[in-house]
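User: Hey, my collaborator sent me this sequence without any context and asked if I could get a structure. I don't really work with proteins. Can you help?
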Amino acid sequence: IMEFLKSIWMFFQTNILTQPAFFVGFLVLLGNLLLKKPLYQAYASFVKATVGYLILNVGSGGLVSTFRPILAGLNQRFSLNAAVIDPYFGQNAAQHAMEAVGRTSSLLFLGLLVAFFVNILLVALRKVTKVRTLFTTGHIMMQQSATGMWMVILFFPQLQDATAVIMLGAILGIFWAVSSNLTVEVTQRLTDGGGFAVGHQQMFGIWLVDKLAPKVGGKNAKPIEEMELPGWLSIFTDNVVATSTLMLLFFGVLLTVLGPTFLKTPAADGGLGISFNSFPFYVMTTAFNMAVYLSILQLGVRMFVSELTESFTGISEKLLPGSVPAVDCAATYGFGSANAPIVGFFFGALGQFLAILGLVVFKSPVLIITGFVPVFFDNATFAVFANKASGLKAAVVLTFCSGIIQVLCGALCASLFQTYQYGGWHGNFDMDTVWLVGGLLQKYAGIIGYVICLAALLIIPQLQYRKDPEHYFQIVEDWDAYKAAKGIE
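Assistant: No problem. I've predicted the 3D structure and written it out in structure-token form, which is a compact way to encode the shape of the chain:
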């Protein structure tokens, strides 16, 4: 019997556990069966999730193969390391880093599973933990699981796989629960009781923006709604246009600096050995291919994340009545000024470009390249909340400062976590600030630093609760009663 069980486990480990696409498909299949869905629906979800992850692999591989020669050229010619601050690049970098030290990337999915159930447990015990939100943004969960697992492996290399998974699950599940819980009040005010919180990568940032905006904007602040923007800026609300334009700008500069001669020179003679007919069209092709692969990657993510989220969300709804889901930050854009996301993107990009110039001038050992997700989604979200709290000035100033922080702290993170070697870091606000502090604690204080991170996170909802214990849970259970109690019109 033991041999039979062992052979089953070896089959599972070889064909599912160490094959991320089929492991995700297996989790989706299991979740659907537990929800008692028809077998044909469970099968369809399994196929979509598995194929979606395989599509993600195509996009991921394309991003790496397109960008890696340029990173190699920068390092070869100028001894300069460059990283794109974008969560998809950050995820790729973390997974490649894990593989480089002999750890399978399937560990991140086990860690994700543990973290999700930790989040469920914290909400189930909300009367004690004071947590009201369940993190359901699947692609963010996956991205953070990848980087979180690499962080654990990097700072605690002696750990066995099972222990690393448990450590990741504990800290990540608590982070998801606590950080999304910080956004409950501000999101309910913005959406007039929309019944959700934000579950993305700038949740501490949203809380901070809400606190700082009135101080920055002042009284009688002019809202964005009263400002007229040039129509051409609207093109940057399109992911493909924005990504292609940003990549064209940066690759144009970087490839021009490297020069066509160096690019064409054979590798044996100290160049990169890249063949092309027209240098300008090679630059455009390279930049636009980044948008192509990013779109492919995002398509794959959407396919399997929707299935993964549904299979888990159905379970959580049965177990956790009265809680609110933490969803993608883009869900807030329909409740603010239509121009707020554009304002956030524009001034966040200005802040990033200024900070990148500073890195070049001061010869930073790590060069940062703007990625679309942080420069748009972080800053668009901040602008929506800042404008709601204190108008245009707050939105402009805070998103500009956010852009600077994303680049400078992103460079520190790429160096601390050693992901610059693989070309990427997340770049989102929380990853550049909260994760930076957590990483420093764990690097220099070891397991004590890890415990400090856990304790500090768990204290946050307790402090929130103490500020308004009477209405703390009412805000998610009965918004109308909460408004009446608070005198909100």
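In plain terms: The mean pLDDT is 87. You can pass these tokens on to your collaborator as they are.
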